Each structure stands twice: as structure tokens, then as C-alpha cells.
Amino acid sequence: MTYYIAVDIIRHDEKLIIEAFKNLGINAVVIKVDSELLPLVDSKTLEGSLVVVRPLSAYNAIYSAVAFESMGALTVNSSKTLYLCNDKILTYGCLIREGLKVPKTYIALSSSPLQTVSSRLQFPLIDKPPIGSWGRLVSYVRDSVDLKMISEHREFMGPLLKTHVVQEVIGLGKDLRCIVIGDEVLGCMMRKASDGEWRSNVALGGTVERYPVDGEVAELAIRASKAVGAEFAGVDLLIGDGYYVNEVNGVPEFKGFIKATGIKVHEHLVKYLVSSSKR
What we know:
D-amino Acid Aminotransferase, Chain A, domain 1; single chain; Rossmann fold; Dna Ligase, domain 1; 5-stranded antiparallel β-sheet; 3 domains; 4-stranded parallel β-sheet
């Protein structure tokens, strides 16, 4: 088995994955996907290979995974999983079909239906586009005036950004990130928003701390990961009157998770990949 790591930017996380392979005596080949001409062919060029898909850009991840799969490689995660995880609406669809609890959600395919949102949801509410990461363009909407301003601003953006995912507010300012590998939850951390910020993303200055994993949390995280077909996922849970699945990340960052929990995600991931590829 030959192992590859597909990247566009080599971050700290990817360096740890490379190191974990080396510690097992494996020299994984790094492919910088944005610098290569990737063939899209029906061949067995990479049969017997496994590619860890780690580009920062969501579409670089999806498209490169498609190319590697066309050449016969196994990919973690698969292009289908990455595609589903990249779109919040598609993710919610998968979660709902599996009977998982998600926040009360409505989709507006243009700004026009937003005029009736107050008959379905109470203000304040959350408005976000179906794509994006690190909390970008996720808005806390206090009233109809806020909503009108947000919708007018988004009308000048790309087609997907004109779509609105409108949700009830649950557990504002904190959430859980659980790391799932295969059928195992490695652990969970709680993320808390920094002063003056309501979004809990670590990229926006959120703080992290270890969160105890009980049976309910573990089951939810594993079911959410499986709903999108992921082998390695970051599952985000909101805490309200119980737990709600909010997102599944198909290329999860884990530097903050290691800081919070001390769990060496890269070592667990690589051992799982090597073990799985030998079955």
C-alpha cells in the first residue's frame, strides 16, 4: 500500500500527519494538488494506494478526491462525503434522513421568502449560506431590519451565497466539536466564543476545553459521521434541550482539539488508515 497526503497548503495538522506516518516507518508522498495537473481518467494507476485528502479549499479537496478515485485510489474522505459536508443543506438532509436532531431550519432560495420567516421562527435567529467555514457569513439576526440588511448584502454575492439557511438559536456562544475516526469517538471539546463575539469558532478566537463524552454524545457523533459516509470527521453539536447536530466537517482541523484534550489525533488517524488498508 502506498500512502499519499493531498494538500494545497501544508498546515500544522498536515505536518503532524506526515510525522505520524514516519513514526510507523512509512514515507507518505505529499501531493500539492494546486500545483499538479490531475488526470481524470478511468485507470488503475493508483490502485493499491490510499490518499488522505487534506486541502484547505473545499473544492480543491472534492475535485482532487474525484481525480484520485478515478485512478483507482482509496480516499479518506471520499469525494461524495466531502461534497456532502461542504454544503450545509445537503448535510442536514443526510442527518434528518437518519433521524438525527438538527436545529429547526428553513431554506430560502432567494431573499423574497425571508419576508415570511417571522411566521415560522422567532427572532433572534441564525442566517448563514449553505457553504463556508470558520463562521464566515454566519449572522446573528436580531430582527427583521437585520435580516433585510443581510439579504440585501448577500444579493451581490455568488449564487450559493444568495441561498439562506435560517435557523433557531440554540446554545449561543458555545458548541461541541467531537472527532470521529471509523466507529470511534476520540473525544470532544467545548468551544466558547471570545469576548465580543458570539461565534465559537477557534479561528475567530474561541477558547477550548475538554468535554466528557457520554454514551449519548458518542452515539450522536458516530451516527452523524456515518450519515455522510465519513471515516474521519469533526462533528459539531449544539447544546439546548438536549444535543443537536449542527455540522459535519470532512476535513477537520485538530490543532485546537489536541490543545484541549491532549489526544494525538494524527497518530490515531494514521494507525486507523494503516490498519484499515490491510483488511
